[in-house]
Structures are given as structure tokens and as C-alpha cells.
Design brief:
single chain; about 210 residues; alpha+beta; 7-stranded antiparallel β-sheet; about 25% helix; globular; binds the ligand C=C(O[C@@H]1C=C(C(=O)O)C=C[C@H]1O)C(=O)O
């Protein structure tokens, strides 16, 4: 990447970002529902079946330039990253990638390092000091950091980027951000549709 492009990306981040604050018009009602559903995603997934969480990786790395604006931190500044996959009744359904500044992972967000297979949700929704940003959603592209992670995780079984819908939001605690990005794998959508059908719900009641 040339210096000029990197300079542009750092200066005008939202203009090259894939993330959108409102749903793409082409999405189904069900997709819009899950991409912008408030509250704990794990709680929503548990209504579809038995949820298992597998930690894929946890390590320090530099903040990706395309994600720096979300964290309001400088590109390449050190962050602590956690990547997990959640399965519903044994079917890999959601891949999540979460990160916080490395200093915060030793401070206000240190709980993130101790979770192991407990979901992040356990430490996010019962603390009045923690606020959540609006959601952003997108269809992934080949260059998207979340897609790069999905490729590492799924290898040759990774679906094309355009088949993957994702959302993200930032949790803030005393000025310290924790970004959570979640990608719905293609196998998730039939499970969600079947569950809604079994419960006799119309889409708007999901
Ligand atoms: C943030 C939540 O926790 C889920 C669990 C995660 C984890 O343990 O790393 C990451 C993203 C979420 O889908 C949630 O359920 O809303």
C-alpha cells in the first residue's frame, strides 16, 4: 500500500470503511433483525439451541488502520484481540473478533483476558458504567480484517466474503473502548429461520 493511500485512510476513515450505520436495503427482515438486535447476542443464540463457545485465538497485535477510527486510537497502536466461534447445536454459526487497547486489557477491561470459554456478554450487560455505541453492519469484502480472520479460522471452508454479513459496536467504560465485531456464518440463517417458524413467529415478532 502506498504512503499516500495509508495517509488518506488514516485521515478519512469512515469514507473507506465497509461498515454502515443503517441496514442495506437488500437484506431480508430476518437479516436486519439479527444485525441490529440490541442486548446480548449469546442470549439470542441460546433461544435457537445449545450454544458452545470455542476460543480461536487471544493475543496482542497492532490496531488495523481500517479499525482505528472505531476505537478512536492510532493505527498500529497495540491492542488485545480475542477471536471466538459460537456453535448452535454443533453448527458453527457466529464468528466474533473483539479487541481493546492493550493497556485497557490490563486495566478496566482486564476481565476480557480471563473469560476463557465464558462469553464476553457475561461482563458487558450488567454494569451501568458500560455504554454501547450504535451498531454498524456490512457485507464483508476480501480485504476486511474480519474476513481475514475468518479465512484463518475456516481455511478452505471459508465462504466467499460476499456471503458473510457482520455487525460491530463499541462498548465504552470510562473512556476505554472494547470493540465487538460479529460475523454470521451462512449456516446460521437456516437455523434462525427454522426457529422462528417452529415458534410460529412472524418476522416482525422475532
Ligand atoms: C458480546 C457478546 O458476547 C459474545 C461473545 C464473545 C466472546 O466471548 O468473545 C464475543 C462476541 C459476542 O457475540 C454478546 O453475547 O452480546
Amino acid at each position: 500500500m502506498t504512503l499516500a493511500i495509508m495517509w488518506f485512510m488514516e485521515l478519512f476513515p469512515p469514507y473507506y470503511s465497509d461498515w454502515l450505520a443503517s441496514p442495506l436495503p437488500s437484506l431480508s427482515q430476518q437479516q436486519k433483525y439479527w444485525l441490529f438486535r440490541p442486548g446480548a447476542l449469546t442470549a439470542g443464540l441460546r433461544r435457537l439451541g445449545d450454544v458452545q463457545l470455542r476460543v480461536v485465538s487471544e493475543h496482542a497485535q497492532g490496531l488495523h488502520p481500517a479499525e482505528a477510527w472505531m476505537l478512536k486510537r492510532k493505527p498500529r497502536s497495540p491492542v488485545w484481540l480475542r477471536e471466538i466461534v459460537m456453535s448452535i447445536n454443533g453448527t458453527g454459526s457466529v464468528f466474533a473478533r473483539s479487541f481493546t487497547p492493550l493497556t485497557a486489557s490490563h486495566g478496566l477491561w482486564q476481565g476480557m483476558r480471563r473469560l476463557r470459554t465464558r462469553p464476553l456478554a457475561d461482563m458487558l450487560y450488567h454494569n451501568p458504567q458500560i455504554t454501547r455505541s450504535d451498531f454498524f453492519a456490512c457485507r464483508l469484502s476480501d480485504q476486511h480484517p474480519l474476513y481475514r480472520s475468518a479465512q484463518r479460522l475456516l481455511g478452505r471452508q471459508c465462504p466467499p466474503a460476499r456471503c458473510l454479513l457482520a455487525r460491530c459496536s463499541v462498548f465504552w467504560r470510562h473512556g476505554q473502548p472494547l470493540l465487538v465485531a460479529e460475523c454470521f456464518l451462512p449456516e446460521f440463517w437456516p437455523l434462525a429461520a427454522k426457529s422462528a417458524y417452529d415458534r410460529g413467529l412472524r418476522l416482525k415478532e422475532l
